[in-house]
């Protein structure tokens, strides 16, 4: 005759493997969610690019401004010079030309840049007109090699050039 203590053990055997499988799946989900939370909080590259939502809201106005900018025919050439400051900042030269290749004088250039590996470290700089026509210089914190996002607005009176491009920037030569 079986003892009364044997029944609970037999009942447990029917649920043993489903409970183990469910516990393993729950533990796996917990580990994945924890790893994603740590990655989002601790890894800088896990941050999304700035102002994506605001840009999406103003898409139509942005496209109209881009068409007006393209109709000007202006061109902005961004060149980091081979000289680095003591703190690692780089001197850059911006050449602003009109549709005929002549320098655009008395324009104000406002640029915003960030490295794709650290989109939260965005910097903005305003560059006033300089003595050499069409040539604008600034010192920027370009301390990393790699892919940088450049957004610039060059404005002279009512004319506005909008530039959005990715640039590969190398380290300065020693």
Summary keywords:
single chain, 174 residues, alpha+beta, Immunoglobulin-like, four-stranded antiparallel β-sheet, membrane, FixH
Q: What is the CATH class designation of the largest domain?
A: Mainly Beta
The largest sheet is: 4 strands, antiparallel
Compressed to H and E, one letter per element, the order equals: HHHEEEEEEE
Query: β content, as a range?
Result: 35-45%
Please give the share of residues in helix: 25-40%
Straight-line N-to-C gap: 91 Å
Gross geometry: elongated
Mean pLDDT metric:
85
The CATH topology annotation of the largest domain reads as: Immunoglobulin-like
Order of strands, widest sheet:
4-3-6-7
Number of strands: 7
Radius of gyration (CA) equals 29 Å
Count of discrete structural domains:
2
CATH architecture grouping of the largest domain? Sandwich
Low-confidence runs: none
Structural class: alpha+beta
- The helix count comes to 3
Keywords: Membrane, Transmembrane, Transmembrane helix
Transmembrane segments: 20-43
Pfam families: FixH (PF05751)
Protein name: FixH
């Amino acid at each position: 005759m079986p003892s009364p203590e044997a029944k609970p053990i037999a009942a447990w055997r029917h649920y043993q493997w489903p409970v183990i499988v469910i516990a393993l799946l729950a533990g796996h989900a917990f580990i994945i969610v924890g790893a994603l939370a740590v990655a989002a909080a601790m890894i800088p590259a896990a941050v999304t690019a700035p102002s994506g939502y605001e840009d999406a809201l103003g898409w139509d106005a942005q496209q109209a401004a881009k068409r007006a900018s393209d109709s000007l025919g202006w061109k902005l050439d961004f060149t980091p010079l081979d000289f680095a400051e003591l703190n690692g900042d780089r001197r850059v030269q911006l050449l602003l030309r009109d549709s005929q290749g002549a320098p655009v004088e008395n324009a104000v250039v406002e640029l915003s840049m960030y490295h794709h590996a650290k989109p939260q470290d965005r910097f903005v700089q305003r560059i006033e007109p300089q003595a050499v026509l069409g040539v604008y210089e600034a010192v920027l914190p370009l301390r990393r090699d790699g892919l940088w996002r450049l957004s610039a607005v060059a404005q002279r009176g009512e004319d506005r050039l909008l530039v959005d491009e990715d640039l590969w920037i190398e380290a300065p030569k020693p």
